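Long-time lurker, finally posting.

We've been working with HTH-type transcriptional repressor AllR (Halomonas sp. RT37) and I want a structural starting point before designing mutants. I don't trust myself to interpret raw outputs, so I'm hoping someone here can both generate the structure tokens and explain anything notable. Sequence follows.
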Amino acid sequence: MSTASTRTTTNSTLQRGLVLLETIATSIHGVSASDLERQLDIPKPTLHRLLKQLEEQDLIVRDVEGRHLLPGERLHRMAMGVLANESLKAPRRMLLKRLAEEVNETCNLTLLEGHEVLYYERVETNWPVRIQLPPGSRLPLHCTASGKMFLALMGPAQRRQLLKHLPLEAYTPYTATEADELERRLADIAEKELSTDNEEFIQGMVAIAVPVYDQTGRIQATLAIHAPRLRHSIDSLMEWAPLMRRIAGQLQDTFDH
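Top reply, 14 upvotes:
Generated this for you. Predicted structure of HTH-type transcriptional repressor AllR:
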């Protein structure tokens, strides 16, 4: 085979692989192989060969039922590398700082990392009494405001896969440790697009979170405020929800470009 012919084949394979990754990554509820066959102009044998290779490289995974394809851990790590780009961190931090100065409490930008919440960016309050959770901290999904927001807005197939392997540990007397109770809370969060942590993770701490969407309407991060119960109740934090939603909309631009 000539060099030119090899290059054409390689480029074609690369393009098809990228199209597959993009389609799976932007699918809100996961996508099946049969869906991909209908949507994409890729021969069936080639499609299944590429999917097998992407799975072997941990770029995609199947849900617990084996029917839907979802972004894999390696693809999540690649996305994290893009988000860490210094040219985008400055405007994100400026927006986060603006919110923290307005509410005079600690504000966080969090990401979903596997089975945990990752504190990606944070601006601290100046109050002497505050919760110390630095960037890079990993928190549980089922009892934090950000974690429950991710769970509530992810596709049913992805949520089933996560909850199957997620220990619903009781961090405080207020933590939901039964799947049915957690699902009820998640349904309410999905409807309101607003999540709360009323001393469910740390006793004496309250928090609220709103989603940061991407251009397809899929949650890509959360914006959260937390504070000691001695300064705020859930109701008083909720007064900041309209401002949080506005800033979350501005944060979307720092992820999409």
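Before you design anything, note these points.
The chain has two domains: 3-72, 84-256.
The mean pLDDT is 83.
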